[in-house]
Write a structure and sequence with these properties.
Chain lengths: 88, 88
Amino acid sequence: MPVARVVVDVMLKPEILDPQGQAVQRALPRLGFEGIADVRQGKRFELEVEGPVDEAALGRIHEMAETFLANTVIEDFTVKVEKAEESK
Amino acid sequence: MPVARVVVDVMLKPEILDPQGQAVQRALPRLGFEGIADVRQGKRFELEVEGPVDEAALGRIHEMAETFLANTVIEDFTVKVEKAEESK
């Protein structure tokens, strides 16, 4: 049965302060890495989906991201189909 | 000056147990979401890079990911250039 990988990326909304990202950004020059104007840190979910990733499946994943994977009060999310492959 | 966004995705290596991903996966059926064979959770870093993202800049970001953003003993990472835009 084909298994497809769908990636849900969850990032803080731009207007929300990102202390983790700022901590990383402040540390970079001390480690010798210049030229990074901003750093934002978020979560990446890789979902292995059984069966075809059709409109219905994507709709379900969208709903899953909205209700469970992201806190949509402070976070935005994107849903991307990465690839479909035969499961081993 | 052009600002480009480079994304560093950090995921646990496949052979490493992912308790967070498993917790999400176990919760999904209870929330009515079927058909998700596996869930892996990782980190996504969005870096705003000053100046052109040429070979040298990508090399630096690769080194930054290897030494600072990822723990390469248990994690893999990928580096992707997302887009270049005129900074506001």
